[in-house]
Amino acid sequence: MAEPLSCDIDTLDLTESIDGGLLSELAELCCFGLRQEAATGEWSISIVLTSDEHLTQLHAEFMGIAEPTDIMTFPHGDEPGGEIVISVAQASRQKGDEGWDLEDELRFLVLHGVLHLTGWDDATVEMRAAMLDRQRGLLDAFQNDPSSNR
After folding, report:
1. DSSP letter at 114?
2. What is the pTM of this model?
3. How far apart are the first and last CA of the chain?
4. Domains of the chain by range and CATH?
5. Among candidate residues 69, 9, 13, the one with its CA nearest the CA of residue 45
6. In sequence order, what DSSP letters do the residues of 36-52 get, joined into one string?
7. What proportion of the chain, given as a percentage, has pLDDT over 70?
């Protein structure tokens, strides 16, 4: 029997609207990433799509860096899961780095958060390269998975 995985998504302080279908897909992608990473136990992840201002405030509070960032993850401590907070504005600015649109950048960032919450780290150049490769592989697998609801 499969382990229970819960991924929910919300928006906070956004001036732009995000399509409900994309929100559902990002939650589905989160659970897909957990399954691919062989997450066991009762996982609960909340994804928050937010403004630059909100994530910059969190970045300053928790990392001591008062600058915008694209994503932050907050593990639940000893419990499996956590919160993934993504700046939609920052994602929009950096979407061209990989040559894709905002929706793909948000997908990529959700997977980045899932990997952090499942134990991946990007503290060194080598670790970051491995993590980014894994994200690309997961995104490709998801986009080619006939059971996903896209």
Report:
1. H
2. 0.92
3. 25
4. 5-143 (3.40.390.30)
5. 9
6. HTT--S-EEEEEEEE-H
7. 96
